[in-house]
Amino acid sequence: MNPTLDQAERLDADDELAVYRDRFVPIEDPGVVAYLDGNSLGRPLLAAAERLQDLVRHDWGSRLIRSWEEGWLTLPERIGDELGRVALGAAPGQVIVADSTSVCLYKTVRAALALRAGRTEIVTDTANFPTDRFIVDGIAEQTGHTVKWIASDPWSGVRTEEVAAAVSERTAVVVLSHVDYRSAAIADMTAVSRIVHDNGGLVVWDLCHSVGVLPVELDAAGADFAVGCTYKFLNGGPGSPAFLYVNARHHNDFRQPITGWIGAADIFGMTDRFQPAPGIRSALSGTPTILGMAGLEASVALLAEAGIPRIRAKARALGRWVIELADAWLVPLGFTVASPRSDEKRGAHVTLRHPAAESLSRTLIDHGVIIDFRNPDGIRIGLSPLTTGYAEVWHAMSVIRESARTRPAAAGSGTSR
C-alpha cells in the first residue's frame, strides 16, 4: 500500500499533541521542508523567549545582584526536582541542573569509582557516544583503572547478556547510554542495573536521547547515577545546562572531584577548606547558568502539561510512520531501516542506512530536509513529538526518495550529537 498525503493529514487531524506546535517559535526560513533534527537541537519555545526577555529586563535589569538571593541560587535544585518528577522518575532532592553532559559524566564516574575503591575496571561499550568513551578513557588514564570494552553492535544496542559477560568482581562502574545515539535501540535499564549490582558495581546512565521523550524511571530501576543534556527533546536551547542524578542512597558518601564554591555548605562563608553542601547540591561546582536555565524551565513546564505518556505514544506512532514510508519508498532504492522495528525497543528517532548516506545527507539539507548524518552510513531522522507532524514527515520522505532517485549527492555531513 502506498502511503498518501491524505493519510498523513488525517493522522495530523487526530493528533492530540498537534496543538503544542503553536507553542514554539515558527520556522521563518521558507526553504525548510521539515525539521527532523530535534533530537540534536530542539526548537525554541515562545514561552522561553518571553522568559528570557523578562529575565533580562526585570531579574537582571532591575533586581540586579539581588536576584541571586531572590531565587537564582536555588534554580538548579528547583528545576532539577521538577525535571525529576516530570521526566525522570526521581524523588525530590536527587536531580540537579549543572554544567555540560561531559562535565556531569566526569563528576559521576569519578564519584562512583571512589565509592568502589579497590575495584580495577570501568566497563562501557565500543559503540557508545564519543564523549562517553573519551571521558571514560581519560578517567582511566588518570586513576589507573582498566577500561573493559563491550564490543556492541551499534545497530542493535547493548544487550543485557553482553553486560552480564563483561562485569565481574573487578567492575567498579559501568557507563552506558539508555538510548543508542545511532540506532535508537533502548537498553533495559532495570535489568542491566540489577546485573551490575549483583556483581557489586555501580551504573552511570547517559539519558541524552531518552529524557523528555521516553518514560524514564530512575528510582524504580535502581539506577545509581545518570546524566543528560537539555537541548534535545527538552528544548532548552543551544548550550543549555545539563543535569545529573545521584540516587539518595549514595548522598552521604558522594564526593565529586570539582569542588567549587557553589557546592560548598556555606557558599558565602569563604572558609579555608571545602565542606560539601548536604545532598545533591554538593554536585555543583561553579556559578549556575541562569540565562541557560530560563528556556529549560519553560520547557519542563510544557512537558508536564503534555505528559510523557502521550509524548511517548506519539513518538512510537511517528516511528512507525517513518518505517512504513521507508519500506514503501526507500527500501527499493537501496536503503535499510537500521533502527529497531519494535515500538518497545526503539527510541524517538529512526536511522536509515544507505551506501551514499554522507553525501545524500548534504543534498537533503540543501533541499530543506534537516536531518543528521551518522558515520558510517546512517541518515538519522529525529522525531520530536511536540513539534513534528505526520505530513511534515511525509514531505521529508518524499524529498529523500526523489533525491535518491535523481541526484548524485555532494560531500558533507551533519553536526551535533
From TrEMBL:
Gene3D superfamilies: Aspartate Aminotransferase, domain 1 (3.90.1150.10), Type I PLP-dependent aspartate aminotransferase-like (Major domain) (3.40.640.10). It catalyses: 3-hydroxy-L-kynurenine + H2O = 3-hydroxyanthranilate + L-alanine + H(+); L-kynurenine + H2O = anthranilate + L-alanine + H(+). GO terms for molecular function: transaminase activity. Pathway: Cofactor biosynthesis; NAD(+) biosynthesis; quinolinate from L-kynurenine: step 2/3; Amino-acid degradation; L-kynurenine degradation; L-alanine and anthranilate from L-kynurenine: step 1/1. It holds the Pfam family KYNU_C. It is an enzyme of class 3 (hydrolase). Its EC number is 3.7.1.3. Keywords: Aminotransferase, Hydrolase, Pyridine nucleotide biosynthesis, Pyridoxal phosphate, Transferase. Its cofactor is pyridoxal 5'-phosphate. Homodimer. Belongs to the kynureninase family. Catalyzes the cleavage of L-kynurenine (L-Kyn) and L-3-hydroxykynurenine (L-3OHKyn) into anthranilic acid (AA) and 3-hydroxyanthranilic acid (3-OHAA), respectively. This is Kynureninase. It comes from Kibdelosporangium persicum.
